[in-house]
Amino acid sequence: MTTALIFIGLLLLLLAGVDIAFALAGLGAVLLLAADLSPLLIPQAMMSSMDNFILLAVPLFVLMANVLLRGGAGDDLFNAVQTWVGHWPGGLAVATILSCALFSSISGSSVATAATIGTVAIPAMISRGYERRFVYGLLAAGGTIGILIPPSIPMIVFGFVMSESIVDLFLAGIGPGLLLTAVFVIYAVVRSHFWGGQSRTERCSWDQRRRATIKALPILVLALLILSGIYFGVFTPTEAAGVGFVASLVITLGLQRSLAIGQLGDIALESARTSVMVLFIIAGAKVFGQALALYQIPQEVTAAVVMNLVLPIAFIVAICLLLLVMGCVLETLSMMLLMLPIIEPSLRDLNIDPIWFGIIFTMMMECALITPPVGLNLFVIQAVANDGHGEGSVSTGEVARGVFPFVLLIMLCVAIVIMIPEIALYIPFHL
What we know:
There is one protein chain. The chain is mainly alpha-helical. It has one domain. The protein contains 20 helices and no strands. The chain has helices spanning 2-15, 20-34, 41-50, 57-70, 73-85, 91-107, 110-127, 132-144, 153-162, 166-194, 206-231, 237-255, 264-294, 297-308, 312-326, 332-349, 354-370, 376-389, 396-419, 422-430. Helix 4 packs antiparallel against helix 13, helix 10 crosses helix 20 (422-430) and helix 11 packs antiparallel against helix 12 (237-255). It starts with a helix and ends with a helix. The mean pLDDT is 88.
């Protein structure tokens, strides 16, 4: 009964328009005070949540993503990829997906990926006759790859909350990330072949491919630097974020001169806003998590799960269905910080690999990014499309209708990873 009342209270706060960070912190504070505990527990919980070296990676990755975004990295990357695959059936769609996957390996953010690639891909695809709904859905879904292929900001938060290795999570995301990319590419090619109408680009010459690839080479080297450095243990994910940020400055300010020093102030301010939002939610979730532990909510949930869902696979499926529903009303980070403290004991009791579960959880968060009414990538693509890159006004509903097939494809990939855990676990533990 207590559990139900707590979550009804949280839902009412969210429906009333209270920001998720303040809703979590406020409700947690009320529960702690109602138990006649010292008010000092609240600021102590919030401060302890911030005192972690791992979280330093969040603002650094956000900074790197914004530097590359403002420096026009997406243009060079997209142009290079489309010179190789643009003449295929659905070539521009394939180029868009591959560009999203490559940019994901340096940004760690779905929003940055969708916005960066969308800016150049939307006008290019629409001008070639691609259906607008398909274009918007493709970009919104392609952006979600940004939180699966490492580095990934949600994976950093997951590792922090669950006390798991960030490196293992990053490496575990490579296989499912490549799987999702391949499934998206196959769908784009098949759809374009049978339900086309778009015109193909001409096959580029080897000289054109060479020049475009050389121009995008610094971005590709940066992605390789981050992934190989983490894989071989040269630096930690937090150090990788710092190295990536410095390297992005060298590329955009020095090599390509696509960014002016005067723009760094705006970049820093925007990155600070994003980082503070993330850290506020983490702090609020910490207070709420302490209150849940005090009222033994995780223990009650665990007992109910173990009693009714004795098979780990049944628990995983149930959690996936719950996340699919929650993703329609909560943004991804909030969903993660709300759910993990509750289900963590159940994972241990059912002997579920937390790294494997982390990848499945992240893939379900991808669905949350593109499911209405609060799917963040829907609004990002709507904004990009309406910023002079679409034909007329683009509504969120139009983007939402376009992403529906991709939601099904993500769910298909989730099912495959559930059935074949080695897709996620082979690289971190066997390679």
